[in-house]
Design a protein that fits this description.
Four Helix Bundle (Hemerythrin (Met), subunit A); Rossmann fold; alpha/beta; 19% strand; 18 strands; 361 residues; seven-stranded mixed β-sheet; 12 helices; binds 5-S-methyl-1-O-phosphono-5-thio-D-ribulose; four-stranded mixed β-sheet
Amino acid sequence: MKVKGKHYRTIWLKEHNPETVQIIDQTKLPHKFQILDLRTVDEMAAAIREMYLRGAGLIGAAAGYGIYLASLSAPGDPEAFEKAMTDAADLLIKTRPTAKNLEWAVNKQLHTIASEHSVEEKRRAALHTAVEIADFDAEACRQIGLHGMKLIEEIAQGKKGEPVNILTHCNAGWLAFVDYGSATAPIYAAHDRGIPIHVWVDETRPRNQGASLTAWELGEHGVPHTLIVDNTGGHLMQHGMVDLVIVGSDRTTVTGDVANKIGTYLKALAAKDNGIPFYAALPSSTFDWGITDGIREIPIEERDPREVKYIHGNLICPLGTPAKNYGFDVTPARLVTGLITERGICQPNRESILKIFPEKR
Ligand code: MRU
């Protein structure tokens, strides 16, 4: 993705200093484009927890680099090295519980490191795997774009030159991954292909990732879009102003239940009621192959209630008002039209998902 004409990923190794990882500080957007240096696993964990970086794919890649940073400072004694790696893994996994990608990346790192012999080889493997995780994420999202674009293209054929109106929630954009995004990848691909599109951007209270991140990235890429408050989607759908909903996912069961940013379920209900296709876009690293009931089994992150009670430091309710801050909800498979993955589009059920991921049978 380009920012002011320069290509960026969301995470990378510092030039001439591969012991430092750099990220875009997402808490400063859309007003400031600022790069942060991270040198230790503690700094990486804090960056994930405090949401300097966020989004399922990106926190997975960040966890991969976090383990690499931990390997650099871990003691040379093999036993102490191994303990440092498990401590780093625990620390990273506890930062944010819902996105499967984080756990996936940490386990991939631990597995690779365990298969090497010397500490030096383990460090080299950790670097290699961190880069591999990031590259996988970017390439998977690029593929999601190509598959998802076909859906937009089909709808465009019936619109006689009028833009295809797509609604998205939160930020499943390139900022939430290493590049391209999941929900936005088909949008960018369609726009680049010259298909007329327009995106409705949910602001996404309480942290406003839609307003501050999705609107910013769509603007940088020149994609026509309009910001709306979270409760607007249903009204737009009733009035024929939405052709397609594409959201991301933080964890998807093998049966097709989709956990995504809080409020997604309500969009899916409204889409169902209005006969509008509702797709979730996700790389395979977001699947939780071991669970079948998303509502019961997916851990839902609860964040600080102050995020609900304060907007930019201003209290918006009586001081003593109790508040709850659930970060995610689960949309059951029956409300999902399809899943857009790097291997193609499938239906939200075990048979269809395992057909394109047969190695998970
Ligand atoms: O809390 P966040 O910003 O890390 O949440 C992740 C998300 O941006 C969304 O849930 C997104 O739609 C999932 S895809 C990265």
